[in-house]
Amino acid sequence: MKALFYLFIFVFLVFIELFPVRKIVTGEDVGENLKQLKKHQWFRDCLKDEKYKELIVHNRNVRKTIGGFHSSKLDSKTYLVKCQKKLEKSLIKELNNAD
Asked: Is the full-model pTM beyond 0.85?
C-alpha cells in the first residue's frame, strides 16, 4: 500500500513539473498594470524609448510579462523593483531576439 502511495506522489510531481499551473494573462490584466506602471518615472522613461515602446505595445511576450504582475502589489516599492528588473530583462531578451 505504501508503494502505491509513493508511486502516486511520484506521478503527481512529474505531472505538475510537466504541466505547471500558470495564470492566464488577459488584455484587462495588461491594461490595468499599464495604468499602474505609468505612474512611475522609470516606466515612463521606457515608453519614451521607441524600441521599448514598440515592444511594450506590440510584443506578446513583453505584454504577458506586464500582465503577469500582481496589480494589488504594484504599490509596494520592493515588488515594483522586482517587476522593473523582470520587465527590463524581458525587453532586452526580445530586443536580442529581434536581431
From this structure: no
Q: How far apart are alpha carbons 98 and 42 in whole angstroms?
A: 23
Can you give the residue range of the structural domain that contains 50?
26-98
Q: Cα Rg for the chain, rounded, in angstroms?
A: 18
Would you say residue 49 lies in a domain?
yes
Residue 45 lies in a domain: yes
CA 90 to chain centroid, in Å, comes to: 8
Question: Rounded to an integer, what distance in angstroms lies between the CA atom of residue 44 and that of residue 37?
Answer: 8
31-68 pLDDT, tens digit per residue, is: 999 999 999 999 999 999 999 999 999 999 999 999 99
Q: How far apart are CA 86 and CA 38, in angstroms?
A: 16
